[in-house]
Request: fold
Amino acid sequence: MKRSGKRRHYDYTLLFAIFLLVGIGLILLYSTSAYNGQVKFHDSLYYLKKQGFATGLGLLGMFFVAGIDYHKWIPFAVPGYLIAILLSIAVMFIGDEYNGSKRWLSLGPFSFQPSEFAKVAVILFLACFVSKYVKKMGKMSMLIRVMLSVLPIVGLVGASNLSTAIIILGIAAVLIFVASPQYKQFVVIGLVGVGFMAIFLALESYRLERLAIWRNPEKYEKGYQTLQGLYAIGSGGLFGRGLGESVQKLGFLPEAQNDMIFSIICEELGLVGASMIILLFFLLIWRFFVIASHAKDLIGALIASGAMAHMMIQVILNIAVVTNSIPNTGITLPFISYGGTSVVFLLLEMGLVLSVSNLIE
Reply:
């Protein structure tokens, strides 16, 4: 009787980091959102219950995906990408608008952001595309083909969510570099990225307004959120006021549980606590790198590299926005900011990476 080979196993360090971030995220979300939940919905657990349900759903999905050989998802790469494009088109016509942004689709009592699905779809699509044509990736013609393949989703998502479009472009750049590390190509990608951002900034006046607010937030009414976030960071000091003791979340910082949650972390846990959260993200990104380096094949390496690029860019963008290092882009902090769609698709993405780690010898 033949042996079935080595037993599959998860990358337990990655799994530990995921569970730690998810658990800490729920604690911090409750601490940040309890006041808003009580005032708006007469339930201090309102946001925690919704996020907890989405997290549970995401964890089930993560283990389901992790238990499947990632090669079996290859036939779904192109259909998944096309669905992401169709959903993004649907947002433009029948999407729901919240806080001035049209980014959601409603399905009965549930609503979700197609842009979160698009990130995972693009990682899988580009991993399959690049691995198929890896021998030609050094040619400019193939680079143009790759960029053209992602421009439809970048354009559609960027119409309402510039930050997610930047993340998708970043994922594409990293995957191209992993397949063919030629620096000349990235001059072209950089020029395309700058041109893309210039076009989208010019198309909508409110984006140009954000640049002005970023430079002088105290001169604009819309700079209020940025200033309150900076006050929260500054008042936290080295060790913070203590968990649950934030003042800024008590109506001063609007929707603190969303993309500005890192400022409340700094206020309650201080520089030390915020640094620990950042170190956890570093641990996660490091494990992506290790898995990509030891993957069984190129497509597995590209999936892990795509997840690494996604996590790295999104964390950097969020913290840069909160600290007013860049203009406000409305990007969330992975696993910690409130958002059911975000946490579900992030965990499904983690499942893909765990699936890659399962096949490492």
Q: What stands out?
A: The CA atoms of residues 236 and 267 lie 4 Å apart. The two ends are 22 Å apart (CA to CA). The chain has twelve helices and three strands.
